[in-house]
Write a structure and sequence with these properties.
Layout (H helix, E strand, L loop, with lengths): L1 H13 L8 E2 L2 H9 L3 E7 L4 H16 L5 E7 L4 H6 L7 E6 L2 E7 L4 H13 L3
Parallel strand pairs: 1-3, 2-3
Antiparallel strand pairs: 2-4, 4-5
């Protein structure tokens, strides 16, 4: 019984209290957001990837901490959407690409430092204002 309680507590601690607001990538939606000069983060992830899970926790926290920044996250499943993975030249899962409208501002693989991710998103959000 004690082992179950510890396991349950560990699962609760590892679960984020925020929910990632994201949508599945589609070329039409991406083009629509680009035309609106929106801030877009393309998240190439895999469900089995621990680095991707860490990135999602940081992105969830960013959305919670900065509701004033209208960040659109479009997710690309590395295992199931190889065409889009190739289009963005993502070398592996845990690739993040940040756009402001048509312009790409950042490309990162396996970045999990909160301060770097926050800084890049904030910098791109301020671009063109």
């Amino acid at each position: 019984m004690k082992r179950l309680a510890i396991l349950t507590f560990g699962v609760l601690l590892s679960t984020s209290i925020f929910a990632l607001e994201a949508e599945e990538f589609s070329q039409d939606r991406f083009k629509e957001l680009q035309a609106e000069d929106a801030l877009i983060l393309v998240d190439v992830f895999a469900t089995w990837c621990p680095t991707c899970a860490k990135q999602h926790q940081i992105l969830e926290k960013f959305q919670h901490d900065h509701p004033e920044i209208d960040l659109h996250i479009l997710t690309v499943d590395y295992d199931d959407d190889r065409e889009t993975v190739r289009h963005f030249r993502a070398p592996r899962q845990s690739t993040l690409l940040l756009f402001k409208g048509d312009e790409q501002h950042w490309f990162s693989v396996a970045e999990t430092r909160e301060e770097v991710i926050y800084s890049e998103i904030k910098s791109a959000a301020e671009f063109g204002e």
